[in-house]
Specification:
single chain; 5 helices
Length: 155
C-alpha cells in the first residue's frame, strides 16, 4: 500500500468512492448523490490517494481511500475510505500523511468540518472539537461538528 498524489485519471474512481460510501446512506445520501471529484479539483488542490499497488499493469491500482488538503484556509476538505477497506488502518495512514503535508506547507493547524458519523474517528486520531458548523439548507441539512488538528513543527 502506498499514498501518492492523485492525478486526473483518478477522478472517476474518487467520485465513485464518494457516491458509493455507506457513510452517506439514508438521510445523508442527497449530499453526495451528485457529487463529483473532477480533474480540475485534483489539479487545483492537494489530493492524495491510498492505493493497493497492482500486481500487474492490467489490474491497475486499487483505490482504498483519499483526502484533500486545502492550504488557504487550512482545511481537510474531503476524506473517504472505501467501504471494503474500513478498519484496516487506511484512515489513520491518510491522517498521518495529511499531517506531514500540512507541516511541509507551513501549517500549524488544519480544520475539519466532519460528517457527523465520522467525528469519533477524527477524535480518535487527535482532532479536537472546536465547535459546530450550522446546517446550510439545501446543500447541507444538518449541523456538523467542527474539529481541528494541531500540526506540531518537525523535530
Amino acid at each position: 500500500m502506498v499514498v501518492r498524489r492523485a492525478t486526473a485519471r483518478d477522478a472517476k474512481r474518487l467520485t465513485r468512492l464518494v457516491r458509493g460510501s455507506r457513510a452517506y446512506e439514508g438521510r445523508y445520501a442527497e449530499m453526495v448523490s451528485g457529487y463529483r471529484v473532477g480533474p480540475d479539483y485534483i489539479a487545483t488542490h492537494r489530493v492524495f490517494v491510498a492505493v493497493d499497488q497492482a500486481r500487474s499493469e492490467e489490474e491497475g491500482d486499487r483505490v482504498l481511500g483519499f483526502y484533500s488538503l486545502l492550504v488557504d484556509p487550512a482545511e481537510l476538505d474531503l476524506m473517504f475510505v472505501a467501504d471494503a477497506a474500513q478498519g484496516l488502518g487506511i484512515g489513520r495512514l491518510l491522517i498521518t500523511h495529511m499531517r506531514g503535508e500540512a507541516r511541509a506547507a507551513g501549517l500549524d493547524r488544519v480544520r475539519v468540518v466532519s460528517h457527523p458519523p465520522a467525528e469519533g474517528f477524527y477524535r480518535s486520531v487527535g482532532a479536537i472539537r472546536t465547535g459546530t458548523a450550522l446546517a446550510q439548507p439545501p446543500a447541507v441539512a444538518w449541523d456538523r461538528p467542527e474539529l481541528e488538528f494541531a500540526i506540531p513543527p518537525a523535530v
